[in-house]
Design brief:
single chain; 158 residues; mainly beta; Immunoglobulin-like; 4-stranded mixed sheet; 2 helices; 35% strand; disordered C terminus; binds copper (II) ion
C-alpha cells in the first residue's frame, strides 16, 4: 500500500446527497429471485450521487483527497490542466475504470461505481506520473445510520 507523502486538503462532497436519500433496492431488484444476492453493479441509467470535478496538473490531482458521505455511483469530470498527456484511473470496489489519455486542455467524464464504503486510490496511469505525485484517494463513508440518528440528510418517510 502506498503512503501519501504529504497532507493534502480534503474536500467534502456534500452535493446531491438529498436526492440519493431514497436509494437502495426496490421492486425492480426483486425479480432476481427470492434470496438472490443484490446486484453487484448499479442498474443502467442509475443517477450519480455526486459529481467530482478534478483537475490534473503536472504532477498533481486537484483535489487529491475527496470524501463522500455515502456509497454510490460517482460522476468524475476530469480536466487536463497540465502541459502533457494525462488520464485518470479510479480503482473502485468493482474494479478499475479510467479515462482515455487526455491532451493538454482536454477533458472527459468518467462514472465510477463506488458502491461500498472504503478508501479508493485514483491516479494518472500515464508513464510514471503516479510516482511523481499524481495520485490521491476517494474515501467513501456510510453515514446513512448517522443521518437517520440525528435527523439530517434523510427525507421523511411517507
Ligand atoms: Cu499524468
Amino acid at each position: 500500500m502506498r503512503m501519501m507523502g504529504r497532507k493534502l486538503t480534503t474536500a467534502l462532497i456534500a452535493g446531491a446527497l438529498a436526492s440519493a436519500a431514497c436509494g437502495g433496492s426496490g421492486p425492480a431488484h426483486e425479480r432476481a429471485g427470492r434470496g438472490a444476492p443484490p446486484p453487484r453493479v448499479a442498474p443502467p441509467g442509475a443517477a450519480p450521487i455526486a459529481t467530482i470535478r478534478v483537475r490534473e496538473i503536472d504532477m498533481r490531482l486537484r483535489p487529491a483527497k475527496v470524501t463522500l458521505r455515502r456509497p454510490g455511483l460517482v460522476r468524475l469530470e476530469v480536466i487536463n490542466a497540465g502541459s502533457t498527456l494525462h488520464a485518470l484511473q479510479v480503482d473502485g470496489p468493482r474494479g478499475p475504470v479510467r479515462t482515455r489519455p487526455l491532451a493538454p486542455h482536454g477533458s472527459a467524464t468518467l462514472t465510477a461505481d463506488l458502491g461500498r464504503p472504503g478508501e479508493y486510490e485514483w491516479y494518472c496511469p500515464i508513464a510514471d506520473h503516479v510516482d511523481k505525485g499524481m495520485r490521491g484517494t476517494i474515501k467513501v463513508l456510510d453515514r446513512t445510520a448517522h443521518d437517520r440518528a440525528d435527523g439530517r440528510g434523510q427525507s421523511p418517510k411517507h
